[in-house]
Amino acid sequence: MKQTVWHRLDLAARQATPVSLTLILLLLSMLPLGVPGFAPVMPALAVIAVYYWAVHRPDLLPIWAVFGIGLFSDLLRGEGLGVGVLLVLLVYGIVVSQRRFFVSRSFLVIWFGFTLVALASSSLMWALHSLLASQFLDPRPAIFQYLTTVAAYPLLAWFFARAQRALLR
Amino acid sequence: MDKRTGTVLRLATPLKAWAQRFAFILFTGAAFGLMILGKADTVLVERARMALADAITPILGAISEPVDTVRNTVSEVENLAALRAENAVLKAERKRLVAWETVARKLEAENEALRQLLHMVPDPDTRYVSARVVGDRGGAFVHSVLVGAGQREGVAKGHAALSGQGLAGRVAEVGRRSARVLLLTDLNSRVPVVVEQSRHRGVLAGDNSPQPSLLYLPPDAVVEAGQRIVTSGHGGVFPPGIPVGRISTVGENGVRVQPFVDWDRLEFLRLANYGMPGVLDVDAAAVERRITQAGSPPVLDSAEGLIGEEPAERIPEDPLEVAAPVTSQPEAASAEAAAPVPPPPPRKVTP
Questions:
Q1: B28 φ, ψ (degrees, to nearest 5)
Q2: Given a cut of 60, is residue B320 above it in pLDDT?
């Protein structure tokens, strides 16, 4: 089969789906929705996205892309630079090192795995922010965010799965 | 593609695992490096952040308009029901306000006359830039919003960000067409305030909770829930008298203030340039000269310090530094002693 330039472009665009979808989602999550009390407990979308793609298509999510996603999210939110990067790297590291656990498991098992991974990342987030502020911060925002993140996982996973089926076969 | 990766994997699995581990360590190290960079070189990081903000602001602005439309339609339908009652309330309020307007005009004239008597330095003019909030509050530990106005519109660091109800925060970073406003509730927010009735000074410090706490009150200060908090004007960032909030609780956790701003409905912010000499480009030395020419006028209200007399060399680049109580308080106090200029809010002047 001869590959034309268009074929290759098409393939490249398809393979960039995980990263580009994640970036678009991060951008959309910035929109002021005006839902009372929602903004401070916005689910950690970068963590969800990196987890999903690291579990399902690690081949399309190289580590530098993970780094880029974290950096993008940090710059976007104006948070302490590097914190978001470390969080997604942690998630990526856990998933990649525990690959055998995640291979062809049911959705519930993967969601369960996510509750643990998100717990680790939320704790790290709280610790890093406390470190940056050099004081013990109230952990409640981190706890709330953890809960919304875990709750948001199925919805986003469904959305990612649709995209995966449509664009990546 | 799959087949090829499969072969490569089988052939070079140990090598690949090693490379992967190495890459992971490398990138983690880079992330820590970024953290240190973010702490050390704030200018560079800020520039990167605002460059990205500038790039995405038009996109966010375009998307946020339909979102706002939907939101407004919903709230308009809600309001329709309450229209009649609201109208009655507004009419009553209008009557009351007309009376207030008369009082205000009288006070303004009186103030003007008294100011002329005292040769007081006139208040700088205020310019407003209204901007749409295009980006929501950061994350769990950062409370800031992006607005769609920047240097192009004349916004600069340190400008006060006001919503209809009161002070929302201050401009912390400026890009060409966007700016980041640090909200009162953010951990890094410090605003010099004063309790409106008793004139006790304090600092409103954000701590990521919806109700920032009031710190550094004098030990003998008696405060109670319900008292209004306004900006004091110390440190030369905000002028005195901008409404901030109301004391909500006084207890073991310190004094908490409920800001007037409705955080969930921040749609537009007014960025106010008060021309404060403390941070902006007004020649502080010239102001001082005028003060001395006026021959050190009497202090009308000693609890009310002043804004503009920080010496020129102390003009801080970072408004945060100005607002930080620990660094600015001593200087502000000494400057006050050196050149006391009364900036009293109108009601204080009249008996």
A1: -65, -40
A2: no
Instruction: Identify the CA nearest to A77 among candidates B142, B192, B243.
Output: B142
pLDDT tens digits along A55-87: 988 888 888 999 999 999 888 887 778 888 999
The verdict on a CB contact (< 8 Å) between B136 and A27 is no
Interchain pair A30, B52: CB under 8 A: no
Judged by average pLDDT, the poorest of B153-162, B241-250, B325-334 is: B325-334
**Which ranges constitute the DSSP H helices of B258-312?**
284-293
- Rounded to 5°, the CA angle B13-A9-B24 comes to 30
pLDDT value of position B6: 58
**What is the C-alpha separation between B30 and B218, in angstroms, rounded?**
46
Determine the pLDDT at residue A151. 92
Give me the pLDDT at residue B12, please.
63
Distance CA B150, CA B165 (A): 23
Q: Collapsing DSSP states into helix, strand and coil, what is residue B245?
A: strand
Interface probe, candidates B2, B28, B34, B183, chain A, greatest A C-beta count within 10 A: B34
* B184 contact residues in A (CB cutoff 8 A): none
CA B141 from centre of chain: 17
Report the gap between the CA of B219 and the closest CA in chain A (Å).
24
pTM for the structure as a whole: 0.70
Q: How far apart are CA A74 and CA B64, in angstroms?
A: 21
Give ipTM to 2 decimals: 0.81
Q: Determine whether the interchain pair A63/B24 forms a contact, defined as Cβ–Cβ distance below 8 Å.
A: yes
Question: How many Å lie between the alpha carbon of B62 and the closest alpha carbon of chain A?
Answer: 10
pLDDT by residue (tens digit) across B82-124?
888 888 888 998 988 898 888 888 888 888 888 888 877 766 6
Pairwise CA distance, residues B268 & B12, whole Å: 57
What is the spatial distance between Cα B246 and Cα B227, in angstroms, rounded to a whole number?
5
For residue B171, what are the β-bridge partners?
A: B181
- A 10 A CB-CB count for A12 gives 9
